[in-house]
Design goal:
By secondary structure, the protein is of the alpha/beta class. It contains 9 helices and 10 strands. α2 links the parallel β1 and β2. The radius of gyration is 23 Å and the shape is elongated.
Length: about 325
């Protein structure tokens, strides 16, 4: 009887420790964006049973289901889960408010030349290293797992300097996937099939799983590295700060995304701003070159739209 009580005690202790670990374990926030929806059908069906908006939603939900089922350290959010119209601005604002770590937008393609087929991936610029790394992993899996023809990774220069708003205005690594061409009869059939949709979704999942492992490995490495402590000095005269974010709602200064910067984040409230009153900065530099160097580091940490602001001290 005494032995039974001891075993029960240790079991409860282990369960408590396990619960604490689950509660405190860091999470990756992933926003999945099924392109188009509602009054915006995207590319219209040719011979198949679905327009682009329907295919996008099916593949997105399959991909999200894999993440929810198989990755304990990922929280999945969707810009839409039904046949609803969501503006491009609202999609990016949703991801930015969630402080997402990654944003993946899923689409299918079309071309007047019905012979063209294959997958394309889009990032904002080639300098967005994490976006490009994620795109490369997805491209590799679409090739190996789904057996798709690869048409490459394109940025705004490849698109004749044409921007794709959802990868330009999101403040985290972002990739838009064109899963195939509805205008090609064979590929349209594949995109409308259960097998094709599942192969594409599982390929994207495998790529994201690789990215999530690399993400946590990098986080662990940074935790084990002693940070360079900033020496506080009284700086007189004009100074440069790096603006990293504006928000309509208050963001906790200890948020996971801010923690990745490994530098103190300053909040300023602009009462005259019409919407984005909460503004967040890092750094306090007399020398513009030093501020510029920090800005580049901040951009590599995921705040790719960060820019310098000059203040009078």
């Amino acid at each position: 009887m005494r032995m039974k009580k001891i075993l029960t005690f240790f079991l409860l202790i282990n369960l408590s420790i396990s619960n604490i670990q689950c509660q405190t374990a860091p999470k990756i926030i992933l926003v999945i964006d099924p392109g188009h929806g509602g009054k915006d059908p995207g590319v219209l069906r040719v011979n198949g049973s679905s327009d682009e908006k329907e295919i996008n939603l099916i593949i997105s939900k399959m991909f999200g289901h894999y993440c929810d089922s198989l990755l304990d350290n990922v929280d999945v959010f969707y810009t839409r889960t039904t046949d609803t119209f969501i503006s491009l601005e609202d999609r990016t604002e949703f991801a930015n408010k969630k402080l997402a770590h990654y944003f993946i937008s899923i689409h299918v393609n079309s071309n007047p030349d019905s012979r063209i087929y294959g997958t394309e991936l889009h990032v904002h610029t080639a300098s967005c290293k994490e976006s490009y790394e994620l795109a490369e992993k997805i491209q590799n899996q679409l090739d190996k797992r789904a057996g798709r023809k690869i048409r490459g990774i394109k940025n705004f220069k490849d698109r004749d300097r044409s921007n794709i708003l959802v990868v330009k205005n999101t403040k985290m690594p972002a990739v838009l996937i064109e899963c195939g061409f509805i205008s090609n009869a064979e590929e349209e059939e594949f995109l409308n099939s259960d097998e094709g949709q599942n192969l594409i979704a599982s390929a994207i999942f495998r790529a994201f799983r690789e990215m999530s492992k690399a993400h946590f490995k990098k986080e662990e490495s940074e935790k084990n590295t002693t940070p360079n402590k900033e020496i506080k000095k009284e700086v007189k005269g004009p100074v440069y700060k790096i603006k990293i974010m504006s928000s309509a709602t208050k963001v906790a200064l200890n948020h996971e995304q801010f923690k990745r910067l490994n530098i103190k984040v300053e909040e300023r409230i602009d009462k005259n701003a019409p919407k984005y009153k909460y503004q967040y900065f890092v750094g306090n530099y007399k020398n513009k070159a030093d501020a510029e160097a920090m800005k580049q580091k901040v951009q590599k940490k995921g705040f790719k739209d960060a820019y310098l602001v000059k203040f009078k001290n």
